[in-house]
Design a protein that fits this description.
The chain is α+β, with helices and mostly antiparallel strands and 403 residues long. It folds into two domains: 184 residues, no CATH class; 192 residues, no CATH class. It is built from 14 helices and ten strands. Strand 6 and strand 7 form a beta hairpin. It is elongated.
């Protein structure tokens, strides 16, 4: 018998036992659905996180006024960054496009009709450009506002809603630590950061205003920078590190008293975390395929027992052990591939439904489809081989006499 005849014979055998074949494929179907769904949702989640990272800014570097050790201990930011540090970075780093110093201060903001506990951030006129943040209404801080320490404020959408409801707050007054501030703008809604903080629950004011009139200090807690090109981010970060270590008089044995990270660092950390999670979920999903493969082996062994006389007749008519072996392996692979195709179609549908429910983008990758279908075929080959081998080793005379 040629390959085509063996394949049609395998299909005929499966059609003769439709219900059993369907039940046998269920484990494979469920496993493939799980693999497709996990990989598609994982890719969608990765894309969503990358979109969130892109909202943080373009080509950005953040320098924090605390050592990595203090950050890991949740000690918070310290005002360790000075005006001299800022000037040195500006002077020595040619690849910087924009730079903004920053200070943060928890505060209560009060309007005529409401109050809200939030955070006021002192930044300069370049901050919005670094962050790629757009205005919903009004204008952002100007260089003159920073130079003159003007009492002006730009509100995030959460603060604007809590203090003014549906009114347009531009031109109205709020009070921060009993000082009046004029609202000059509202920023577009950005949503939460990858670590869960609400970016819209904030007030921006000139850094000099926050330093002198709200905090009474002249140092900074952070620098935000954007480089002219993405390719120069890591090199610029290394140069900034060298500059700050020199300005802070740190010896080679001393740890950094600051922390910096780039947009690339955030993306790589996010990709690593999502990769580990996706791998774990993929392993769990693959267990269903293995369970399905065990079910196929069990059914194939039963099938060999039931078809002993058929095997004996085939051998008596000239079928070789190799022919019998290939026939039963093809039956197992056909069952698995049928389940794999059905599972892939159902997995695509399930992924789209889950993506729609979660509001996530869903990407059905060719890798997921190829992996699931090839895994199905390999499961059929692996778990179908032993029953097929057992069938091929039957003694023709004993098989014909079997009752």
């Amino acid at each position: 018998m040629n390959f085509y005849q063996l394949f049609t014979s395998a299909l005929r055998s499966l059609r003769n036992h439709k219900v059993r074949s369907l039940l046998t494929t269920l484990g494979i179907i469920i496993g493939v659905i799980s693999i497709i769904a996990v990989m598609s949702i994982g890719e969608g989640a990765k894309a969503r996180v990358n979109q969130t990272i892109e909202k943080l800014g373009s080509n950005f570097i953040i320098v924090l006024g605390a050592s990595p050790k203090h950050l890991s201990q949740r000690s918070g930011l310290a005002l360790t960054l000075k005006e001299a540090d800022l000037n040195a970075i500006k002077f020595e780093c040619d690849d910087i496009a924009y730079i903004s110093p920053a200070v943060m201060q928890p505060t209560k903001a009060v309007s005529e009709s409401a109050n809200w506990q939030t955070t006021v951030a002192g930044v300069n006129q370049d901050y919005m450009t670094i962050r790629n943040w757009k205005l919903l209404a009004g204008e952002f801080l100007t260089e003159q506002d920073v130079r003159s320490s003007n009492r002006v404020a730009v509100l995030g959408t959460v603060v604007a809603r809590e203090l003014f409801g549906t009114e347009n707050p531009v031109g109205k007054m709020i009070r921060i630590k009993k000082l009046p501030f004029k609202v000059v703008g509202i920023l577009e809604e950005l949503g939460k950061t990858p670590d869960g903080r609400d970016q819209d629950d904030i007030i921006f004011s000139p850094v000099t205003t926050v330093q002198r009139k709200l905090m009474g200090k002249t140092a900074y807690s952070a620098f935000l920078l954007s480089t002219k090109t993405k390719e120069r981010m890591d090199a610029t970060a290394s140069l900034i590190r060298a500059i700050l270590r020199q300005k802070h008089n740190l010896s080679p044995a001393d740890d950094d008293d600051f922390t910096f990270f780039t947009q690339n660092d955030i993306s790589q950390a996010s990709d690593a975390a999502s990769g580990v999670l996706n791998l774990l979920l993929l392993i769990i999903a693959s267990i269903s395929l293995i369970v399905g493969g065990i079910g196929i082996m069990n059914i194939m062994l039963v099938s060999v027992t039931e078809r002993t006389k058929e095997i004996g007749i085939r051998m008596a008519l000239g079928a070789t052990t190799r022919t019998i072996l290939i026939q039963f392996i093809l039956e197992a692979i056909t069952i698995c591939l049928t389940g794999g195709i059905a599972g892939a179609l159902l997995g695509i549908g399930a992924s789209k439904i889950i993506g729609f429910a979660l509001g996530w983008p869903i990407f059905i990758s060719k890798t997921a489809l190829i992996l699931s279908l090839s895994s199905s075929a390999l499961i059929g080959l692996f778990f179908g081989y032993y029953p097929a081998y057992k069938a091929s080793q039957l003694n023709p005379v004993e098989a014909l006499l079997d009752t």
